[in-house]
Design a protein that fits this description.
This protein is of the alpha/beta class. It starts with a strand and ends in a 7-residue tail after the last helix. Strand 7, helix 5 and strand 8 form a beta-alpha-beta unit. Helix 1 runs parallel beside helix 6. It is built from 7 helices and 8 strands. Strands 5-4-1-6-7-8 form a 6-stranded parallel beta sheet, with helices on both faces. Strands 2-3 form a two-stranded antiparallel ribbon. It is 36% helix and 14% strand. The chain has one domain: Rossmann fold. The chain is globular and about 45 Å long.
Length: 163
C-alpha cells in the first residue's frame, strides 16, 4: 500500500485563493496516473492530509482514492484506521510525506519516502528522498519504485522494451 501526504508531496506546497475565497493547488498528472497504475496492479492507495479544500476532495474523488482523510491533526489516527480496515502490516506500507507531522508515520512504515524540498528532520526519518520535487511527479517516482520492486512486482508487472 502507498499512503501520501498532499501539500508539498502531491502538490508543490503553494496555495492560491480564487475569487470565491477558496484555496487552490496544482496537481501533477504523472502522480495521478501513477496512483491509478498502482491500484490497477492490486495495490491500495491512501491519502492523509492536515488540510481540507474542495480541490483536494475533487482530485481524490476523481482518482477514486478509497482511503482518504482530511483535516487530520494527528496522522497516526487515520494510519491506524487504515491498518485496521486493510489488514496490512506496517512494513507492507509505503508513505511519502514532507513535514514534521509526517514523521510518526515515516518511522513506522516499511518504506518511508520524502521529497527534496522536505524539512531536514523528515529527510533524516526517510529511507528515500526523491529526485523529483513535490508536486512535479515525486509520487510517480515512488510509484515506479513500488511497481519495479514491490510485493506485486514479480507477479503483475511485465517487462516492456523501450522503442
Amino acid at each position: 500500500m502507498l499512503i501520501c501526504d498532499v501539500d508539498g508531496v502531491l502538490t508543490d506546497g503553494r496555495l492560491w485563493i480564487d475569487t470565491e475565497g477558496k484555496w487552490r493547488r496544482f496537481f501533477h498528472v504523472k502522480d495521478g496516473v501513477g496512483m491509478k497504475l498502482l491500484m490497477d496492479l492490486g495495490y491500495e492507495v491512501g491519502v492523509i492530509s492536515g488540510g481540507k479544500s474542495d480541490d483536494v476532495v475533487q482530485r481524490m474523488s476523481f482518482l477514486n482514492i478509497k482511503h482518504f482523510y482530511l483535516e487530520v491533526a494527528d496522522k497516526r489516527i487515520p494510519f491506524q484506521e487504515i491498518i485496521k480496515k486493510t489488514g496490512f502490516k506496517k512494513d507492507e506500507i509505503a508513505f511519502i510525506g514532507d513535514e514534521i507531522f509526517d514523521i510518526p508515520i515515516l518511522e513506522e512504515v516499511g518504506f518511508a519516502a520524502t521529497v527534496p524540498n522536505a524539512v531536514g528532520e523528515v529527510k533524516k526519518a526517510a529511507h528515500y528522498v526523491t529526485k523529483t520535487e513535490g508536486g512535479y511527479g515525486a509520487v510517480r517516482e515512488v510509484v515506479d519504485l513500488i511497481r519495479a520492486h514491490g510485493s506485486l512486482a514479480q507477479t503483475k508487472v511485465k517487462k516492456r522494451r523501450a522503442k
